[in-house]
Specification:
single chain; alpha+beta; 5 helices; 25% helix
Length: 224
């Protein structure tokens, strides 16, 4: 028996949009925030694809990353549904944007990326992908305001200066040395070793504590 609504219409009586996924993969290259891009018939775009029958969104996102960008085994999460009726001139297409952040060490030298400035790509991307990148950057900042380097963009061991410089890249602004240290120090543990990278005075090396959650005040400091 076919289900029908109060007006007598079955599901197949309603027009249906196509469903797509797009993935904003953020990384740090040359001390600046970048997003992975791929060529498309409308110019540079985020890796994306259309949902296939019997496929879930996560599987589609993994397929898009693997086929379009050559990226495997990446942890990502759903970001936001982009549903403007006119977002795609090919037809009615909803896109579930996904977000990820990965160390540049995990990408190949041939993986193309675009510089991000003020939370936007420096050149216009296809469709509404510029807005997806902005949402991904804001999401990344929110996560970094509540946990020490959750995307593991630094090495496993780092100095406070290296960690602060990473946070300055993510938040796109200078951060007070003393205030930053005060907010993150309880979420770190010392390694008992030092680093002389950069030729300066030896600096203590730290690693993330087993629970690297930052205090609420850190979120206010970083996001404020």
């Amino acid at each position: 028996m076919t289900w029908r609504d109060r007006e007598g219409n079955a599901l197949t009586d309603y027009p249906r949009p196509s469903v797509a996924v797009d993935v904003a993969v953020l990384t740090v290259r040359e001390r600046r925030l970048h997003v992975v891009v791929v060529p498309s018939e409308r110019g540079r775009a985020l890796p994306g694809t259309f949902l296939r029958p019997a496929e879930n969104l996560a599987d589609a996102a993994e397929r898009a990353l693997r086929i379009k960008a050559g990226i495997d085994d990446l942890t990502f999460h759903q970001l936001k549904m982009f549903d403007a009726p006119d977002r795609d001139d090919r037809g009615w297409v909803l896109s579930m944007a996904h977000s990820a952040a990965v160390s540049a060490r995990s990408l190949t030298a041939t993986t193309e990326s675009m510089l991000i400035d003020r939370a936007r790509p420096v050149s216009t991307l296809a469709f509404d992908h510029d807005h997806m990148v902005t949402e991904a950057v804001l999401d990344l900042r929110h996560r970094y305001a509540h946990e020490v380097d959750p995307a593991r963009l630094t090495e496993e061991e780092f100095t406070l200066l290296e960690l602060r410089e990473l946070y300055e890249i993510v938040f796109d602004r200078p951060l007070s040395k003393d205030t930053f240290r005060r907010h993150v120090i309880d979420s770190l543990e010392g390694t008992g070793t030092t680093s002389t990278a950069g030729g300066g005075r030896p600096a203590e090396l730290y690693r993330r504590a087993p629970d690297p959650t930052l205090p609420p005040a850190a979120g206010s400091f970083l996001l404020g």
